[in-house]
């Protein structure tokens, strides 16, 4: 799988996981209507499907996705929730992203 396609799949998976989780959070913690939670659950289920579009094995995909998720969660919190990441949040996210790239994109013999 080429790098661009792999990154797009990770981003779509992240949007599904974070978006679905956010809707459930809104329903349970912010007293939004139940349909927020139902829609969030459906979107979270879609995340499980999207992750299978990666060509690497389960463990490697989920380990690498964790690094992508950290960065995306901070971006979501900043843009959607008004959270302002500090420099340590940014440094931590970049370290996690570097680790994710090493895990998923390092060439390996077959």
Describe the 3D structure:
- The chain is mainly α.
- The protein has one domain.
- It has 4 helices and no strands.
- The chain has helices at 3-29, 34-50, 58-80, 87-105.
- Helix 1 (3-29) runs antiparallel to helix 2 and helix 1 (3-29) packs across helix 3.
- The chain is flat, with a radius of gyration of 15 Å.
- The two termini are 14 Å apart.
- The mean pLDDT is 93.
SSE topology:
Blueprint: H1 3-29, H2 34-50, H3 58-80, H4 87-105
Helix pairs in contact: 1-2, 1-3, 3-4
How much of the sequence lies in strands comes to under 5%
Q: What do the pLDDT scores average to?
A: 93
Number of β-strand runs: 0
Uncertain parts:
none
The global form is flat
| Helix run count | 4
Overall helicity: over 70%
Evaluate the radius of gyration.
Answer: 15 Å
Distance between the termini: 14 Å
The major sheet is characterized as: none
Structural class: mainly alpha
Integer count of domains? 1
Order of helices and strands: HHHH
List keywords for this structure.
110 residues, mainly alpha, 78% helix, membrane
Short overview:
The chain is mainly α. The chain contains 4 helices and no strands. α1 (3-29) packs antiparallel against α2 and α3 runs antiparallel to α4 (87-105).
């Amino acid at each position: 799988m080429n790098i661009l396609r792999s990154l797009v799949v990770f981003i779509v998976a992240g949007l599904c996981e974070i978006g679905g989780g956010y809707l459930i959070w809104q329903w349970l913690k912010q007293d939004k209507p139940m349909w927020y939670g139902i829609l969030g659950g459906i979107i979270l289920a879609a995340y499980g499907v999207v992750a299978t579009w990666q060509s690497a094995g389960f463990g490697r995909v989920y380990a690498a996705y964790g690094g992508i998720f950290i960065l995306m969660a901070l971006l979501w919190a900043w843009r959607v929730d008004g959270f302002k990441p500090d420099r340590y949040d940014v440094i931590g996210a970049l370290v996690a992203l570097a680790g994710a790239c090493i895990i998923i994109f390092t060439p390996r013999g077959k």
